[in-house]
Each structure stands twice: as C-alpha cells, then as structure tokens.
Inverse folding.
C-alpha cells in the first residue's frame, strides 16, 4: 500500500468513526482455502484491514436511523405497599430496658423451638437465648416498630453462624411479624417458602444464600413489596424464574448458582436493580431486547455460565452506565453489535467461550474505561489497530479465535469447519446501528501505556460468585 492510499484509508476511517459508521458485520462463510490465502496482517499497526479494498465505504445515512424500541413488557399488579418505614432502618442494639416488647410470646416460643433444632452452634449464639428480653439474644436486633410504637424484633442476622440442624425457614419467620431484615446465609435453613410471607409488612432485605433451599422460585417473595435486596445465591432452587421478579423495586438481584431453567423473562427490562447476577444456572434462549429499559440503572450484570443462545441484541449498546457485562460460557453467537462502542463506562466485558464471530468493532476498543475485555474462545476474525493496541496493553484477550496472523489462535481447520456453515442472526441490519456518536474517545486521548490505567474497584457481582464467608 502506498503512503498516499494508506493516508486515504485512515482519513476515510476517521471520518466514518466521526459519523458513527463502523465496519459491515455480515459474515459470509469462509472456506479453508480462503482462510489459508488471507494475507497476514501487516506488522505496522496503522493499517486497519486485511486488504485495502475491504476498507469501509463512506457512511451510509441509515446509520442514524434507529429502529423502533422493543415493546415494554407488562408490569404486574403488586399488592398495596405496607406503611413506609422512616428511611432505611439500620438494626440497632437493644436498649437495656425495652419496656413492652412486640409479639413477645410468639418470638420467644419460636426461638426456643429453633434452639432445640440447632444441633451445632460453633459460635455460641444460643447460649444467650435465655430470659424474656429477646433484644439481648445474639443475632437479634430491636427497634421501634412504626405502626405499633413499641420495641420489636426487626432484624435477624445469623450470617455465618454456621448452625447445623434441620432449620425450617418458613415456620420460623412467620412467628416474627415485625421483621425487616433477615440474613441467614451459610446456615442449614431449608423448607418451603409459603405464600403469606407478604404478611411481613416491613420485610426489605432477604439473604437466604448458601443454605439448603430447593424447589421452585419462592414466588411468595414477590408479594413483599418492600424488598430491596434479594439474595438467593448458592441454593438448589430450580424451574423458571417468575416474570414478576423483575417488577420488584429492588437494588440487587443475586440468584446465581442455583438450577433455574427456561428463558430470561422479557420483564427483565422492568427491573430497576443496579446489580444483577443470573450466573451459573441453566437459563436458555436469548438475552431479552428489553434490556434497553435497564439503561438508566444497570451497573453490573452477569449472565455467565448458562445455556443462553441466539445473538446479542443491539439494545445492549444503550447500557452506557454499565461497568460490567459478562455473558461468558454460554452458547451465544453472531457478531458483536457496533452499538457496544457506546457503552461509555464499560470496564469489564467478558464474551469468552461462546460462538461469536466477525470483526471486533474498533469502537469497542476505543472505550475510554476499558480495563479487562475478554473475548477469547470464540470465532472472531479481525482486529483493527485500536484493538491491537489493547492487546499489547494486556487489556484485551482474543486468544483462541480465528484471527490469522495473531498468536494463540484456533487451528485453521476448526475455524474453517465453523465457517463452513452459513450463520445468520435475526435482524442483521441492527448489528451496524450505533445509538451514539462514535468514537467516544479520540485517538489522541487514548492511553498509550499501562500507567494511564487505574484499577477499578472489584465488581460486586463477581464477589457474589464466591460463597459467602464470615
Ligand atoms: C480484498 O478484499 C476484497 C473484499 O473483501 C476481496 O474481494 C479481495 O479478494 C481481497 N483481496 C485479497 C488480495 O485478499
Ligand atoms: C463457646 O462456649 C464454649 C464453652 O461454653 C467455649 O469452650 C467455646 O470457646 C465458645 N466458643 C466461642 C466461639 O465463643
Ligand atoms: C410513641 O410512644 C411514646 C411513649 O411510649 C409517646 O411519647 C409517643 O408520642 C408515641 N408516638 C406515637 C407516634 O404515637
Ligand atoms: C441440614 O438439614 C437437613 C434437613 O433439611 C438435614 O437432613 C441435614 O442433616 C442437615 N445438615 C446438618 C449438617 O445438620
Ligand atoms: C424443628 O424441627 C422439627 C422436627 O424436625 C420441625 O418440624 C420444625 O419445623 C423445626 N422448627 C424450626 C423452627 O426449624
Ligand atoms: C448515555 O446515553 C444518553 C442518551 O441515550 C446520554 O444522554 C448520556 O449522556 C449518556 N451517558 C454517558 C455516560 O455517556
Ligand atoms: C480478566 O477477566 C478474566 C475473566 O474474568 C480473568 O480470567 C482474568 O484474570 C482477568 N484479567 C486481568 C488482567 O484482570
């Protein structure tokens, strides 16, 4: 390529980025011979394409015309909200003389029954469960119950108590009518969760993670309008997730490491949750297009380790507040939508171990906060100079793909076999749609060395993939 034509290519490229144009992403099957004949990428990183004639045509005007948004899913009627608490209650230690106690007989009765059922109590909780003032019991927290104006048991925290025995969650909690916060992770609670948990008028934090719960999703939770925190991780729940889950006004949905099945309901778009992990279940089907509606709230989302299929909806590109997006270890396919270049805050992107193919959009590699982008173990075919820059910086991992000329790629035969089958996605035209002005960063602002990177805080959702430990 002559210096002039190289310059021209770069000018065309830059002006297209300015106008939101990105490479065509339709991929035609390649034969082994074609793959073998493909020239190696040039050593200098300034030539973005495998050959000059593959450089993009001038921006089509249609780039700016976006299709209609996916329809919003219906919301479901919820029960009327219970009386509101004054802000978010923090459990506080009991006053020494609490005066009359709310539901005293009921709380004392069930506490003694639980105590009899606990066969192992390594941290000596039950030793303190004596006398009539339950506010002094280890693990119990009291405060004024708003609609009674007397002291009551508002929080139970047995996180990490390591109780062993046959502990029946539902039977226990229905004797605690004033409860707001119930944290019992890593104990041996089990038992069905029956419908009228919503009789618990103030319930807003439920952490049942890492216990022995099984059966279908505890639909009765849905009636608990106050919940802000749903943590059911590390149990053996199974079956579908009810669509109503995503209508709850919660901040956190952690349901990873269970056996949930079937598709992700399209109500997913209704959830205002900031942190969501559906990881390590057996969900099938595609990521719902309604994810568009999560754009104003969603910060971290993990879909990893399921059986998701289909192509990535371009609506994901609207998630410009998200820091973490992980769909690794699924059965997803298709190209990366060019809209991914709009995910302005993306730090941790993981698409590894799927069947994605096509060129990696340069706009993705120009995201200003890119920290760890893992695209390995797919069938991607091209990287341009910006992506090569990220590879050199150790920010982008493209190992085990079909990018000829790069080290650590798949065997050409494996690639040819993959591309010998025609592969298509529904709505192929959407892969080149860009709902923002690209690039988000100009080349001169891009970091050239590791020193520009500061380590972002560890994602909360990744921490949720570890069993809770205390
Ligand atoms: C260059 O790319 C064009 C279009 O993709 C293709 O038709 C042509 O064969 C390529 N040339 C070489 C030398 O690979
Ligand atoms: C619990 O109490 C027993 C004796 O009552 C004592 O030996 C043990 O160290 C205590 N354990 C803890 C964790 O306090
Ligand atoms: C709650 O009870 C205290 C005395 O126990 C009383 O002074 C106060 O006015 C009561 N508040 C309400 C809202 O009833
Ligand atoms: C946990 O609870 C189950 C019943 O739900 C019981 O069979 C099992 O023995 C308990 N495990 C321990 C370690 O106590
Ligand atoms: C205690 O154990 C009995 C017998 O297994 C069981 O029926 C009951 O539900 C348990 N109660 C609690 C609070 O765990
Ligand atoms: C996200 O996109 C919206 C328009 O959809 C825009 O108004 C907003 O400034 C963008 N935020 C960031 C952080 O880029
Ligand atoms: C990037 O993320 C992947 C997948 O989570 C992880 O295996 C890898 O260690 C991370 N790399 C760095 C440099 O943090």
């Amino acid at each position: 390529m002559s210096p002039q034509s190289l310059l021209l290519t770069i000018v065309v490229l830059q002006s297209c980025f300015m106008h939101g144009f990105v490479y065509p992403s339709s991929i035609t099957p390649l034969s082994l011979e074609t793959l073998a004949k493909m020239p190696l990428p040039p050593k200098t990183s300034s030539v973005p394409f495998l050959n000059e004639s593959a450089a993009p045509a001038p921006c089509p005007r249609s780039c700016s015309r976006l299709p209609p948004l996916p329809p919003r899913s219906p919301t479901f009627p919820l029960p009327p909200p219970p009386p509101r608490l004054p802000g978010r209650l923090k459990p506080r230690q009991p006053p020494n003389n609490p005066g009359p106690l709310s539901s005293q007989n009921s709380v004392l009765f069930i506490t003694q029954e639980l105590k009899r059922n606990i066969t192992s109590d390594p941290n000596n909780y039950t030793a303190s469960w004596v006398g009539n003032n339950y506010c002094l019991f280890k693990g119990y927290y009291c405060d004024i119950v708003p609609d009674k104006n007397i002291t009551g048991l508002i929080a139970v925290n047995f996180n990490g108590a390591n109780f062993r025995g046959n502990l029946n969650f539902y039977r226990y909690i229905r004797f605690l009518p004033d409860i707001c916060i119930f944290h019992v992770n890593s104990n041996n609670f089990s038992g069905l969760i029956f419908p009228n948990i919503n009789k618990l008028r103030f319930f807003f934090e439920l952490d049942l993670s890492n216990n022995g719960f099984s059966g279908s999703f505890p639909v009765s939770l849905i009636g608990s309008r106050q919940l802000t925190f749903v943590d059911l991780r590390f149990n053996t729940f199974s079956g579908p997730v009810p669509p109503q889950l995503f209508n709850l006004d919660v901040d956190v949905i952690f349901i990873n490491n269970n056996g949930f099945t079937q598709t992700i309901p399209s109500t997913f778009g209704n959830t205002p949750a900031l942190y969501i992990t559906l990881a390590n279940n057996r969900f099938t089907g595609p990521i719902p297009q309604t994810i568009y509606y999560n754009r104003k709230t969603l910060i971290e989302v993990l879909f990893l380790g399921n059986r998701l299929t289909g192509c990535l909806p371009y609506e994901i590109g609207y998630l410009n507040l998200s820091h973490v997006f992980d769909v690794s270890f699924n059965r997803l396919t298709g190209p990366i939508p060019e809209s991914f270049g709009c995910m302005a805050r993306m730090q941790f992107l993981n698409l590894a171990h799927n069947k994605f193919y096509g060129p990696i959009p340069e706009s993705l590699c120009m995201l200003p906060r890119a920290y760890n982008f893992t695209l390995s173990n797919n069938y991607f075919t091209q990287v341009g100079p910006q992506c090569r820059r990220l590879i050199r910086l150790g920010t982008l991992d493209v190992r085990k793909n079909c990018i000829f000329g790069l080290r650590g790629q798949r065997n050409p035969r494996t690639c040819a076999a993959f591309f010998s089958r025609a592969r298509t996605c529904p709505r192929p035209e959407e892969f080149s749609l860009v709902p923002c002005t690209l690039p988000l960063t100009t080349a001169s602002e891009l970091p050239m060395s590791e020193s520009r990177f500061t380590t972002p805080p560890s994602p909360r959702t990744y921490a949720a993939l570890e069993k809770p430990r205390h």
Notes: The two ends are 62 Å apart (CA to CA). The first strand starts at residue 118 and ends at 120. Helices lie at 3-18, 32-37, 104-117, 169-173, 385-393, 412-419, 460-463. The mean pLDDT is 79.
